[in-house]
Amino acid sequence: MTLHPPTILVLLLLGYVMLGLQLAMVRRRLNEVEALRRWSWGNSLLLAGHLMLLARIVVPLPVSVIAGNTLILLGECAYVAALQQFIDDRPLPRWVRRTCGFCVAAMVPLALFDTPTRVFVASVLTPLPAIWGAWLVWRARHRVERSLWPVGAGLALIALALLARGGHAALNPSYYTDPMLPGGMQAALLLTSFVALLGSGFGFVLACTERATRSLEHLASHDHLTGALNRQPAELLLTNALQRARRDRSTVAYVLIDLDRFKSINDRHGHVFGDEVLRRFAQTVDARLRATDVFSRCGGEEFGLVLPDSDAAGALGVVEELRQACAAMGLMTDDGCPFVLTFSAGVALSPSGRVGAEALYRNADRALYEAKHAGRDRVVLAQPEAPQTT
């Protein structure tokens, strides 16, 4: 079967149109994500570029060659800019932008050369942005969504196909006297572009959707101000920790923390400063916990800690370290005065998980009440109630 490059090019254009429609719908649903906006621009530029190449039968050849290849290259640069924004949340490095600018400028004199030379130059310059995009995905493959992997693979596939065409054009210039004539290399390149388009474009949309879903899940389970877990998911993790403690015959410690005189902080220094105190406190605590520990915001200025496999000495040591770290946070009020944060804490233990979650919370709350009424800025270890088996 003979593959007809113009026919494949039409299919490629239809693919860009379908992807553009999907991008428009997804951008509306995801509230105009910046990376998606850049990818949409890239898709539009690639669509226009391939359309200009196809329009060579009615458009003067120099215009078709220069405009088509320039738009395709700009589209690839926009794709790579979208990837950089999505992966690193920053614009392209300056040297990459300069490289893209040089490649675009080098497309302008293409019409002065014969067709084989134009094919060779375009095949060498066009894959450069795609190579950087593939490298971005490869470099961040362990921390990005797996749905982004086909994007990197697609860009790498496009780059390899274009470089292969450039090498073939250098060795066989007579083969490229008219790129629109039926031929294996031209058809293979266009087919590769079509497959890579579908893999890269739809993979990027899927990655953006996946990240948005994860963000919504995080917002549902975490406090928006401090980043600590909300109370309900923390209670589930406490229950799980108690179940493991029963199996392992280990001790779970639960700590209830209340920031001292927090209402007066808001009254004297304003709610903006109060929010900053909560954020800095949460960051200080989170930086000193193990991966297995659970940190949650119970409400207002009250926080909870679940410390699996921790006895009384270990839990008290953790709380004391946190008290010292909070005192040394170096907070400053708006009028330039130093502010020292203190808190009161109650610690309750569940040896072998025998004390249930509700009783554990009551014990810690009672110990916290004792710490506050004893003068605040201290920690009290609760005396447990009768053991529970549920």
Protein model, in words:
This protein is α+β, with helices and mostly antiparallel strands and 390 residues long. The protein folds into two domains: 5-221, Up-down Bundle (Rhopdopsin 7-helix transmembrane proteins); 231-381, Alpha-Beta Plaits (2-Layer Sandwich). The chain has 13 helices and seven strands. It has a five-stranded mixed beta sheet with strand order 2-3-1-6-7, with helices on both faces. Strands 4-5 form a two-stranded antiparallel sheet. Helix 2 (34-54) runs antiparallel to helix 3, helix 6 (127-139) runs antiparallel to helix 7 and helix 7 runs antiparallel to helix 8 (184-221). The longest helix has 38 residues, at 184-221. The chain is elongated, with a radius of gyration of 31 Å. The termini are far apart. Its EC number is 2.7.7.65. The chain crosses the membrane at residues 6-26, 95-113, 119-138, 147-167, 187-208. Residues 250-384 form the GGDEF domain. It is an enzyme of class 2 (transferase). InterPro entries: Diguanylate_Cyclase, GGDEF_dom, Nucleotide_cyclase, Rev_trsase/Diguanyl_cyclase.
Beta-strand residue fraction: 5-15%
Helix content: 55-70%
Biggest sheet, in brief?
A: 5 strands, mixed
Beginning-to-end CA distance, first to last residue: 72 Å
What count of helical segments does DSSP give? 13
**Which residue ranges are poorly predicted, with pLDDT under 50 across at least 5 consecutive positions?**
none
Structural class: alpha+beta
CATH class of the largest domain: Mainly Alpha
Total of domains: 2
Shape: elongated
